[in-house]
Amino acid sequence: MEAEENSQTDQIQNGTYLELSPKQNKHLCPVCNKRFRSASVLEIHYRMHTGERPFSCSTCNKAFADPSSLRRHYRVHADKSRFSCPMCSKQFSDNMSLVQHVRVHTGEKTFTCSLCPSPSASAEHARGPDTAVKRRSLSAMSLGQDGQEKLAADRVSPLKNFVAGGFGGACLLLAGHPLDTIKVRLQTQPKAAQYVLYSGTYDCFRKTVSKEGLLGLYKGMGAPLAGVAPMMAISFFGFGLGKQLQQRDPSQTLTPSQLFLSGCLAGVFTTVIVAPGERIKCLLQVQASSGQVRYSGPLDCAVRLYKEHGIRSVYKGTVLTLIRDVPSNGLYFLTYEYLKNLLTPEGQSVSELSTPKILLAGGVAGILNWTIALPPDVLKSNFQTAADGKYRGLVDVLRTLLREEGPKALYKGFNAVFLRAFPANAACFLGFEVALKGLNWAAPSW
């Protein structure tokens, strides 16, 4: 019946409705003498004569003669929906409609102007001759605690990313440093064929523990511990800033290329801290395996490097660090964001993702990150631990390594890296998400 009525309505509005017979069409239009089979169809037709169209679209105010036409019209807006309700995930074609809908949930009418702290019971305050400049947002107090947390989770906050990233970095270091020690020792062991200190990942692990105990796996952790929290804090801050710069609206979904560029920006930001920290860490890890104690700790190492050759010695290997971190960070964050969206069930928010899925997304992101980061990392480790003057630059390191050990040398420490990558980065992203949720709960307005 509804389909038949819709068809009749279309024909009436298009002027193509055909009368059947006087017996079937008993209802006569007093204006044009057309007959219709029911009073309801006649009533719809009669409105076309009177100009009365009581059914209006709440989005664009366009008027229609019947509810079925109005429903079909709403589908046009549905295709353009970008604004989603934080309470029920219902979508709207513009921010005004969304705000009006949210008031149904809250039962309040409090709006706050983004340019001044004046609250208003209507949206009129935000309108005026400078509409392009003024913007209106719902007052956080009108959403309640759950609504505030959901809105905070959708909004990108570089400051929250900074704090949560520092906590995630500490989790990454605690989970991954032992295998990082093994990786560096495998990459920098003597090159002579007749003298191989470690035959593989397990052999390096066994010899390190037997000679130095379990604490030997955490040698050189002081420098990265002092640097990893701010490093990851700056990394997540850079990623959040990159996303914020490319988003016109918090509800806008970024494209893969935009996420990749945001991750690349994070790689640029972290190099300032990573380069000297990696230099000191590698020197301490290598001296522990060689048995020659030259530096008593991270601070002593940094001071002596500065005294001997200045700040350039502390930042030795910065270009290689950039080559390693910029593209790898782009892929790192792109993979994590893509997998989070892929693993989120339909109808749920990404912020509600379960712990096992966060661990899976973070672990896979870490593995792909090191897939492209390992060759420049091998070059960086050799360059930073070599005696001053041994290599003239990046090309010389690459040429020497390929000549002495072949292409496989670029993936030395492969097993240790990939054994470390999954648990370390899974722990990092889990720590980040837990800290971010805590911040959204404690300070949703940040």
Automatic annotation (TrEMBL):
Membrane topology annotation = Multi-pass membrane protein
GO terms for biological process, alphabetical = carnitine transmembrane transport; mitochondrial transport
What InterPro entries does the record tag this protein with?
MCP_dom_sf, MCP_transmembrane, Mitochondrial_Carrier, Znf_C2H2_sf, Znf_C2H2_type
For the keyword Transcription regulation, the answer is yes
Key words, A-Z: DNA-binding, Membrane, Metal-binding, Mitochondrion, Nucleus, Repeat, Transcription, Transcription regulation, Transmembrane, Transmembrane helix, Transport, Zinc, Zinc-finger
Family assignment from sequence similarity: Belongs to the krueppel C2H2-type zinc-finger protein family. Belongs to the mitochondrial carrier (TC 2.A.29) family.
Question: What one GO molecular function would you report for this record?
Answer: DNA binding
Q: Which domain of life is it from?
A: Eukaryota
Localisation per UniProt entry: Mitochondrion membrane; Nucleus
One matching Pfam family is: Mito_carr
A GO term from the CC aspect: nucleus
Q: Enumerate the transmembrane spans.
A: 216-239, 259-277
Q: Which residues form the C2H2-type domain?
A: 27-54, 55-82, 83-110
Question: Which spans of this chain does UniProt mark as Solcar repeats?
Answer: 156-245, 254-342, 353-438
Q: Where in this chain does the entry annotate a coiled-coil region?
A: none
The record lists the lineage as: Eukaryota, Metazoa, Chordata, Craniata, Vertebrata
Q: Which PANTHER family match?
A: MITOCHONDRIAL BASIC AMINO ACIDS TRANSPORTER-RELATED, MITOCHONDRIAL CARNITINE_ACYLCARNITINE CARRIER PROTEIN ISOFORM X1
Q: Does the entry feature the keyword Membrane, yes or no?
A: yes
Protein name per the record: C2H2-type domain-containing protein
